[in-house]
Amino acid sequence: MQRALGLLVRREHSRRELSRKLVARGLDAEEVAAAVDRLAEAGWQDDDRFAESLVRQRAMSGYGPFHIRAELGTHGLDSAQIEAAMDSFDGDWLENARDLARRRQGEDFAADPVRRRKAADLLARRGFPGDLIRQVTRLEDEW
C-alpha cells in the first residue's frame, strides 16, 4: 500500500498502470489488486481524474486528439472514460495545432510550400486530424 501511495503522490496513475508497476516490483498480484481497490475507494486513485490530467498535459505538450486517445487506451481505460476525458478538455485543438506549427516552422510557414508540408507532417505525426491540418496549413489570406 505504501509503494502504491508513493507512486500516486508523484503523479496520477491509471489502475492498470499502477497495478503493473507494483507487480513489476515483486508484489503479489492479489495484494496489489486489493491495495489499488482500497486506494480507489479512498479517492487516492481515480481513472477519470488520471484521464483528464493526461489529456490536459498532452494537449499542452502539442499532441492531437488521435494521439491522446490512443495513449489513453494503452492505460486500460474504456471508451466511455476516454470520451469523457476528451470532452472535458476545454482548449482549442485548432489553436494548439497552429501554435505548434508556428513554433516549429516559423510565423510565416504557410507561404513556403516546403515548410507547409513539414508542418503538415509534424501535425499528422502528433495526432491531429486531417481537416484540422488542412485548416492550419492553408495560406493566411485564405482564412
Concise overview:
By secondary structure, the chain is mainly alpha-helical.
Overview of the molecule:
Modulates RecA activity. Pfam families: RecX_HTH1, RecX_HTH2, RecX_HTH3. With 143 residues, the chain is mainly alpha-helical. It folds into 3 domains: 40 residues, Orthogonal Bundle (Arc Repressor Mutant, subunit A); 42 residues, Arc Repressor Mutant, subunit A (Orthogonal Bundle), CATH 1.10.10; 50 residues, Arc Repressor Mutant, subunit A. It contains 9 helices and no strands. The mean pLDDT is 93.
What ranges have pLDDT less than 50 throughout 5 or more consecutive residues?
Answer: none
Please report the number of helical segments: 9
Mean pLDDT over the full residue set? 93
Element string (H = helix, E = strand) = HHHHHHHHH
What is the fold-level CATH name, i.e. the topology of the largest domain?
Arc Repressor Mutant, subunit A
How would a textbook summarize the main sheet?
Answer: none
Rg = 19 Å
- Beta-strand portion reads under 5%
Summed up, the domain count is: 3
Task: Name the overall outline.
Answer: elongated
Q: Given the helix and strand composition, which structural class is it? A: mainly alpha
Q: Determine and state the CATH class of the largest domain.
A: Mainly Alpha
Subcellular location: Cytoplasm
Domain RecX first three-helical: 2-39
InterPro entries: RecX_HTH_1st (IPR053926), RecX_HTH_2nd (IPR053924), RecX_HTH_3rd (IPR053925), Regulatory_RecX (IPR003783), WH-like_DNA-bd_sf (IPR036388)
Keywords: Cytoplasm
